[in-house]
Amino acid sequence: MAEDSAIISERESEAHRTLRCLDEIGKRVTVLREQALTLMREKEDMLSLLQDLQDNKSVVCSKAERDEIQAITEMLVCRCLTVEISVTTPRDENQEIALSKVQNILEDLDSMFKTDVEYAKQTAESYLNACLPEPRGNSTDHKFQGLVLGCAADDQKAVRKRLETLLAHLKYM
């Protein structure tokens, strides 16, 4: 009987150690995913900045300097595109549909910035408010909020971060 108790206790101890190990690995996987997502956003930000530099025709320089800037910019874009980072977010069908709609709205918002910056900024702020637990200001797009809430949690965070980055970028323009 005492031997049976010792064996059971040893098994429980082993199971407890295994569970602690799994818990630690789970935490590390979470950190790894967050770091990968941060790198993905950094890559997107760099590509966006490079695109802005390519589109900027107001820089006063000679043709040779402009050609050099263009060549370096293109080389950096190509190098940046060689970096592939992927984090897969599990989604059900409804989350896929909601994410697709949100992405379409954000693409429309990007286009809006080319035609009416002030209106696009107000719209982006109302979209961001829809993503925040405590909205800033009075304007919240409730339809957008409903779509975002239909997305997976990781997608909700990504949408919020994208809008925050977009609005922060506008402050420097």
End-to-end span in angstroms? 77 Å
Q: Biggest sheet, open or closed, and with what strands and sense?
A: none
Radius of gyration: 24 Å
Shape: flat
Q: Count of DSSP helices?
A: 6
The overall average pLDDT, rounded, is: 89
What's the number of extended β-strand segments? 0
Protein name: BAG family molecular chaperone regulator 2
GO molecular function: adenyl-nucleotide exchange factor activity; protein-folding chaperone binding
Organism: Potamilus streckersoni
GO biological process, one term: protein stabilization
Keywords, separated by commas or semicolons:
mainly alpha; 173 residues; flat; single chain; 6 helices
Summarize the structure.
With 173 residues, the protein is mainly α. 80% of the residues lie in helices and 0% in strands.
